């Protein structure tokens, strides 16, 4: 958490509008907390919290809450490490990879699970995993959550990527571009989160590996709430309030799924200039479970898979990655 320079704030606010910009009221010398997230269905808890002002309510009038969105986990983790954000939602893959390399990051809550689907382009003609040899698949990033899930599933079938000596080629890219890459024949398969999976299916793609089939599909958090160990230690009360606001947001989603779908779609459109068909959002919500639960044993098993697939150079030990202390609002007020 950082002290804002009021002059720099005024200049920045008057010259450029960005998604991470502070509110237009006079922040003065208020402390600032920056929350990061991605514009996709896995990250709906952040969109709900922003819409409903849950972070603002929890943190109080003396703190100015701002938001910043990211295209991928790598960019998010850089921002967390440099202090550009204080907490936020990200996939567990980038968290584990960075933690294993010495990054100061802590998982303080789950956010969502499920939602990862492997689809094949209509042009590829692929009907099953038996036809993956010499094909090209795409994921949002190397070693990202969806990449590890897919490659773990395939490894059990004796299929590996070219990165580790197999024949299945791998590229990365923004999920919003996958349909164009399918149509051009650049890629044949995509391991993709919702709502992009439902979007691709609506355009003719075929589901090859569904959420309940892919490795860790229903047990692994595909999005977690993280912060730094330094901030957790130095301002534990702040983190408890952030965690409690996040928990309130997850509860709202489960109590109000239809309103949450509308808020999510509005938010994604505002950020990406693309509005999703309501049926696609509804289908995506069917595959995603919003929960604050985090199973540390599953996190460790997923990390072991990352090591087996050579995304990590050393066998990981994540016993202290997931915070187990009580971070509820009642605990923060004690």
UniProtKB/TrEMBL annotation:
Chief location category: membrane
Signal peptide per UniProt: 1-27
Entry keywords, A to Z: Cell inner membrane, Cell membrane, Membrane, Signal, Transport
UniProt xrefs under InterPro entries: ABC_SsuA_sub-bd, NrtA/CpmA_ABC-bd_dom
Family label: Belongs to the bacterial solute-binding protein SsuA/TauA family.
Gene3D superfamilies listed in its UniProt record: Periplasmic binding protein-like II
UniProt name for this protein: Aliphatic sulfonate ABC transporter substrate-binding protein
UniProt-annotated location(s): Cell inner membrane; Periplasm
Domain of life: Bacteria
Annotated organism of origin: Jeotgalibacillus marinus
